[in-house]
Amino acid sequence: MRILVDANVPAADACFGGLGEVVRLPGREIDAGAVRDVDALVVRSITRVDAAMVEAALQAGSRLRFVGTCTIGTDHVDQAALSRHGIAFASAPGCNAEAVVDYVLGSLLTLAERQGWRLADRRVGVVGAGSVGGRLLRRLEALGIDCLACDPPRAEREGAQGFVGLASLIDACDVVCLHTPLVAEGPHATHHLLDAERIAELAPGTVVLNAGRGACIDGQALRQRLAGQGDITAVLDVWEHEPGIDAALHDLAAIATPHIAGYSLDGKLRGTHQVYRELVRHLGLPARVTLADLLPPPPVSHLVLHGGHEAEEALRLCARAVHDVRRDHDSLLRESRRRGMARGFDACRASYPLRREFSTLEVTLNEKAHEMAPLLEAAGFRVTMV
């Protein structure tokens, strides 16, 4: 059996090596020709597995019978085309959701520090309450932050209680976080969900954060608002036309990162392991590799707080001990200047440094810091008290 795997998928040999020959290629180099002589394909979001690619590979004699994506999102894979040709498909729902929530909290805490406000005083609107958005809402609410949720498909299925429309959310919230899939058409289309009209409706001082799909925001309209009035703030991890993103929009974003919100080692390994489990199930084999086999100890596992910190500053300190979003912003700025935007964007992703999740950090509080325990636990850290 020959298995082609995106070069950025971690633990590929550990998971798939026992099933056959593992071949690695950069995700943007995986095309019909590369798939011609493989039985299984494992990708990430930058590889488009569309009908043309699948049919061209099969016409060239490909034995392809399984495609897996180690990601939550699946809009880069034409599942209907796979089904027509009897090719099994698997994704990794929820694999990196915790990492994305960590990224959002770290970004908002960084903005609060830069701009002189408290996250606790802001109302946050979450658009898309699925794997990521739902976790974000739960964590924000546990932190005592006022939240609103907009998710028309869920409201349609479950009833409107607990959800608001997008216009109401934009009108009421200081922070708007997008966590929707990219849906091109239909009653719940999300392409340019924040279009020029909705971007114009954002109140001065609003923070727009997109860690969902780049094309859910009209990038040109956002750039014009930022360049013209300059009275809102953008945090962008996903972009239209990746990796050749709009350089002018990049320069105007307060935090600009190269689609790495979910790039924790924990999330990546969960994604690999979920696809591995689905592949062995497809083959009728037992799963011999566990997730615990793959996870190494975190580089920073323990922090001690002795009191003296304001609550939100303590939260920011713990978040940065695990992941400092400023590093990712600076990396994209540096590499885009050195290599050009597209090559710099991909270089940041390909050489992304080790990053763990908030849950891997144990925070010990001495007697003077005990009052911080509920806040830190709500943020996702493990807390002990002495």
From TrEMBL:
Entry annotated with the keyword NAD:
yes
Q: In which pathway does it act?
A: Cofactor biosynthesis; pyridoxine 5'-phosphate biosynthesis; pyridoxine 5'-phosphate from D-erythrose 4-phosphate: step 2/5
Q: Where does substrate bind?
A: 45, 71, 263
Q: Which residues form the Erythronate-4-phosphate dehydrogenase dimerisation domain?
A: 294-369
Principal EC category:
oxidoreductase
Domain of life the protein comes from: Bacteria
Coiled-coil ranges per UniProt: none
- Report the locations given in the UniProt record: Cytoplasm
Q: Does the keyword Oxidoreductase apply?
A: yes
Q: Which InterPro entries match?
A: D-isomer_2_OHA_DH_cat_dom, D-isomer_DH_NAD-bd, Erythronate-4-P_DHase, Erythronate-4-P_DHase_dimer, NAD(P)-bd_dom_sf, PdxB_dimer_sf
List residues binding NAD(+): 151, 180, 237, 262
What binding partners and quaternary form does the record give?
Answer: Homodimer.
**Biological role:** Catalyzes the oxidation of erythronate-4-phosphate to 3-hydroxy-2-oxo-4-phosphonooxybutanoate.
- Classification via HAMAP family: PdxB
**Protein name as annotated:** Erythronate-4-phosphate dehydrogenase
Name the lineage: Bacteria, Pseudomonadati, Pseudomonadota, Gammaproteobacteria, Oceanospirillales
